[in-house]
Amino acid sequence: MKFIDIVKTAIANSFRSKLRTGLTVIAIFIGAFTLTITSGIGTGVTNYIDTQVTAIGAADVLTISKAADSTSSTTDGPAAYDPSKATTVSLGNGSRPGSTIQALTAKDITRIGKTPGILNIDPSVRVTPDYIEYDGTGKFEIIVNATATLTTADLAAGAQLDNASTTDEILLPTTYLKNLGFANAKAAIGQAVAIGITDYAGAQQEVRATVVGVQNETILGVGAGLNQTLTDTLHAIEVTGAPAGASDSYATATAHFDAESTPAEITAIKDDLATQGYASQTVADTIGSFQTVINVIIGVLNAFAVIALIAAGFGIINTLLMSVQERTREIGLMKAMGMNGGRVYTLFSTEAVFIGFLGSALGALAAVGVGSLVSNILADGVFSALPGLQVVQFAPTSIAIIIGVVMLIAFLAGTLPARAAARQNPIDALRYE
Amino acid sequence: MSVPVLSAQNIGKSYGSGTNRFNALKGVSLEIRAGESVAIVGKSGSGKSTLMHLLALLDDPDTGTLLVEGTDARTLKGTEVNRLRNQDFGFVFQQFFLTANATVLDNVVLPLKIAGVPPRERKARGMAALEQLELADKAKNKAITLSGGQKQRAVIARALVNNPKVIFADEPTGNLDTATGAVVEDILFALNKDKGITLIIVTHDIELAARCDRQIFIRDGREDTTESGAPRKRHAGAHAGAHA
Ligand SMILES: Nc1ncnc2c1ncn2[C@@H]1O[C@H](COP(=O)(O)OP(=O)(O)OP(=O)(O)O)[C@@H](O)[C@H]1O
Ligand SMILES: [Mg+2]
Asked: Distance, CA B220 to ligand 2 centroid (Å)?
């Protein structure tokens, strides 16, 4: 029997008992549907994170802080006070309000700068302006995106921030446009906005900045981005009137290393910094921990889908055993007419694979339809604040893999009945009543 | 004299095991030559079908030897046995064994499909076989819609579609009325005469058996030589006559 005839016969046979085949197909459908949806969510979320990571575009940046004091472990209680060491950071230098952390001093900055592999280091400065206003149409609160200088923004209009520029540049999120009085993203480009900020003495001052770009909002920091020049200008105002020494300590610093560094070299730099008493993290480290959590959740969902598919596999075994039973005489006849056992085996496992294909293809198709629909609804609704997030996305390869895996499971499920069929003695089969 | 197509030497077959063991065939020897028509006759349960299945290589004898064109069947490889069953043998079983929901044509071309014959040729040969049995107009019908006589003819069409050397027919007229039975008999003997196909017919119908060149009587799993002997002698004369 030619293979093409075996396939045709197997397909025809699977449609002979439509109800039974249909029920088995439904079982597989459910498993494949779930698996496709979960993998779609995996792809969607991972893609989103990936674009966010590329948006950060700073694979050569380390965020460095002083390592938590090793002597103040949980078992030993707090370490004895050492007046020469402890410097808590004041607000305006990058610390979280109310938190006490070891600060980086100017001395630390120089030391880190000398670490082999570190190209340059900038202490992180965080400014907290009071308001933003355009064209005198009303003052609005402004949140500064601290990572803006490190990231490549996902632009809706305009250009990226230029840290080398001497003009004060600002990058607005799309959500700010309406309140500030811009008709659309394009209209904002090149306009001057006023930023209000209070100095150390309590007096409010205003700085003018040019809007260079409008950015789609991201999960990695909401708010307006300021270029280095504008940050420096604002910081200068914030520390105006401060006593000497109050401003030369920082919570964190950002250091650049060679962008070509291998992971091993990056680890070496981090280890080197660790021995000197500094904690350092690349952007990938930060994102990585986030991604791990998502991967675990998706893994659990996938496990459930696979369990559903294994259950469906038993459905296939049952269906095929019944059809082997039903077709005992037919098998006997075919064997009596010279069909060899191998072909009989192929005939039944092809039927199993076909049932698997039918269920998984339909399941995947339905999942793509439903997933895309739900994803679009969510993107316009719940996730409208996160432009670019399509929660469910389908990669053709992963759909092909799912269908392939289901067909494999079906094939394995089919081996038992197919073997039973292949081993039948033609005469016993023909005498079977 | 040429080598016989089939030669059985004291073949036996038993079913079951232990106290349930039943010797269905207790040592039968026979020879079948190319172009002969042979009837295997006996009462119900005497072991006729069992003998036919052994001769057709559908089952293995427990004792004795079976030679196929001089070769011991036990030494034949699986593929060779399948080739024999597929190309050299045609079967008409006691029951029809038609696939109910497939078309008559599909049922008839099954041996060709197994042989790997391409669809176009399959159809042509299937239709030719059906025409021979005056069933061409029913080719597209489902097998289940045929009458008993039509089914029997469809089964014969299936048996001869491969141009076999030997047709094994187990009670080919058992399910039919005398008139239709006679038609089926005529078809079989015409095939024997015109194409030289060897016929091995299992029957309990003495008249059908008498139309064959030779009769082998089976009783309780043994050849009944008291009856088998006489026709064999007659056969020798008939054979000589045929060649004259
Ligand atoms: N698979 C089997 N298991 C046990 N006994 C069997 C089996 N097949 C056949 N027999 C027995 O072997 C004996 C011969 O059976 P067989 O089918 O050859 O008879 P038969 O001569 O063809 O009869 P009939 O004319 O009724 O078709 C019977 O007694 C039957 O019960
Ligand atoms: Mg019988």
From this structure: 13
Q: Which of A6, A4, A5, A86 is nearest to A348 (CA)?
A: A6
| Residue A211 and residue A120 share a domain | yes
Beta strands B6-15 and B63-68, pairing class: antiparallel
B206: left (phi over 0), alpha (psi -120 to 50) or beta: alpha
Check CB contact of A326 with chain B, cutoff 8 Å.
Answer: no
Q: Please say if the pLDDT value at position B160 is more than 50.
A: yes
**CB-side exposure of B41: number of CA atoms within 13 Å?**
23
> What's the CA-to-centroid distance between B171 and ligand 2, angstroms?
7
Out of B83, B85, B87, name the one closest to residue A336 (CB).
B85
Name the domain count of chain A. 2
Annotate B153-181 with DSSP letters as a single string: HHHHHHHHTT--SEEEEESTTTTS-HHHH
Expressed as residue numbers, the domain containing B30 is: 6-228
- Cβ of residue B45 lying under 6 Å from some atom of ligand 1: yes
For residue B16 and ligand 1, the question of a CB distance below 6 A is answered with: yes
Ligand 1: which of B22, B175, B220 to mutate, most ligand atoms within 8 Å of CB?
B22
Q: Which residues of B touch A333 (CB under 8 A)?
A: 93, 97, 110
- Smallest Cβ–Cβ distance between A333 and the set B59, B86, B97 belongs to B97
Q: What is the pTM of this model?
A: 0.70
Please name every residue paired with B244 in a beta bridge, in sequence order, or none if there are none. none
Q: How far apart are CA A216 and CA A222, in angstroms?
A: 10
Which residue, A221, A247, A281, sits at the end of a domain? A281
* Pair of tokens at residue A101: 């952390």
pLDDT at residue B227, rounded to an integer: 66
- Per residue in A129-188, pLDDT (tens digit) is 889 998 888 889 888 887 676 667 778 888 888 877 888 899 888 888 888 888 888 888
What ipTM score was computed for the predicted complex, to two decimals? 0.87
Rounded CA gap, B98 and B152, in Å? 10
Site to substitute for ligand 1 among A427, A430, A431, most atoms within 8 A of C-beta: A431
Residue that is last in its domain, among A281, A301, A330: A281
Q: What is the residue with the minimal CA distance to atom 28 of ligand 1?
A: B45
State the residue range of the domain holding A98.
61-281
